[in-house]
Amino acid sequence: xxxxxxxxxxxxxxxxxxxxxxxxxxxxxxxxxxxxxxxxxxxxxxxxxxxxxxxxxxxxxxxxxxxxxxxxxxxxxxxxxxxxxxxxxxxxxxxxxxxxxxxxxxxxxxxxxxxxxxxxxxxxxxxxxxxxxxxxxxxxxxxxxxxxxxxxxxxxxxxxxxxxxxxxxxxxxxxxxx
Length: 178
What we know:
Layout: E1 3-5, E2 10-12, E3 17-19, H1 25-37, H2 43-49, H3 54-67, H4 87-99, H5 105-114, H6 121-130, E4 154-155, E5 158-159
Antiparallel strand pairs: 1-2, 2-3, 4-5
Helix pairs in contact: 1-2, 2-3, 5-6
């Protein structure tokens, strides 16, 4: 009779030990089913030992019975495809952008909803970003006499009063007597 040591990830039998990689989820789930069904541990105890629920144990057992060990591999979670941003919705977003380049994502989303497509503003923004169709934001030119990062009294070339090289502006109380 073999037992799986979960802490060391080792299958221990009467004749020896077999190391199981810790990241091998299929083998772990298969060993859980073996201990639960064949070794007499029972479904609830086996599921608890491997950190799963009783419901998940029975789901895995049914999947294993239908498709074998491949069914024990975890599948990708979440939506499998874009059910909101279908190819037709993407085409319509691009079409509306080219028809009216100044239209915002909110306006495009509103037009699509009026046309019968269920699409959110965020989905429209994602399509525009994916295809590089965002509106260009105009840059504000600096005002005359002021540049970004400089205070009043400074021009693009430096302080308001330029001095010849070698001349220094006097500073502090000691400079007052000069």
